[in-house]
């Protein structure tokens, strides 16, 4: 398979070395397919191909691990993995994030329950993912009523909406026409119940105490990995190159369960250069920015590993090639009174309210911000006297402050 060709109706943008006849490729956009090994329906950009079979990245990794375990050491082999080459570390493969698809689906006959994590795509388009167990039984033309709940101990209604519809035209079934509340962030966990064939309840689980994650006030249960990835461009920094480095690391790095982003230095330098808009910074300046971030403790060094397919893992796995990784760890602390006072989402109610200007990620959808959005961001960013470049970050659009309410 070659770059520029097609697979599953998507363009191939990258190929990796074949391993025992299996070819791993990266697609330009996510595609749905059934893994020939685990039998599950997957939605991802990374697909392994062997003849007419398609494998998910997880099963491909397990196949590689099995092949590695069965290899016999050759004469004179010390048992140590080879030292990684610089060019290999610049091309490491990072596993896909949770796509936001439904999981923990329970079909009880009269009700269907599922969970998912909100992605920027859902917030941007006003959508909600739907499992096949609902899509097969609901009527697409019938409008649905939604109730948003604050779950856990004291359940209360936050909002009610009407006229939401089921859309079956795309690759995955979705609900359209939702208006997400301003406090909902990428990564927020949502529990959904569909009953009586029309009513839907979406519940957020409040944290025991609100926290500040990487500078953002969070009030409801969330996935730190998604939040690190999709809020990457919110942190403005004085040094433009430092900002570009941190955005590249958070958007492309390997993410662990705590939301830490990790990547080899070589891969971070290459991607920072390639992703810069306008004038690209020199490699020497990028390396200098990395050293400054390390000296201030914003970045640290950790030890990971890569397997034979160049897939990155953290912590390091036994039998794989060890690799030093640059690590961004988002700060996490209990929110203080001043944090909550300054948090605009705290004042949310179902009455009319102001929604602050904010960034919305669209790059992963293959879209670019309009000239109007770029101009609005430059104007508002300069008027507010914020540090850093006044250009809209790559992969995002800008939504100006506006009024919303029932």
Structure notes:
The protein has 406 residues and is α+β, with helices and mostly antiparallel strands. The chain is 22% helix and 33% strand. It is built from ten helices and 25 strands. An eight-stranded mixed sheet has the order 6-7-12-13-9-10-11-8. It is globular and about 60 Å long. Residues 69-76 and 345-355 have low confidence and may be disordered.
Summed up:
The protein has 406 residues and is of the alpha+beta class. The protein has helices at 57-70, 86-89, 120-125, 132-135, 224-230, 240-252, 265-275, 283-295, 337-342, 371-383; strands at 6-7, 10-15, 23-34, 41-50, 53-55, 103-107, 111-117, 127-129, 144-150, 156-167, 174-176, 189-195, 199-204, 206-213, 216-220, 254-255, 261-263, 299-306, 312-313, 321-328, 332-334, 353-355, 358-361, 396-399, 402-404.
How do the helices and strands line up, and which of them pair or pack?
Blueprint: E1 6-7, E2 10-15, E3 23-34, E4 41-50, E5 53-55, H1 57-70, H2 86-89, E6 103-107, E7 111-117, H3 120-125, E8 127-129, H4 132-135, E9 144-150, E10 156-167, E11 174-176, E12 189-195, E13 199-204, E14 206-213, E15 216-220, H5 224-230, H6 240-252, E16 254-255, E17 261-263, H7 265-275, H8 283-295, E18 299-306, E19 312-313, E20 321-328, E21 332-334, H9 337-342, E22 353-355, E23 358-361, H10 371-383, E24 396-399, E25 402-404
Parallel strand pairs: 9-13
Antiparallel strand pairs: 1-2, 2-3, 3-4, 4-5, 6-7, 7-12, 8-11, 9-10, 10-11, 12-13, 14-15, 14-21, 16-17, 17-20, 18-19, 18-20, 22-25, 23-24
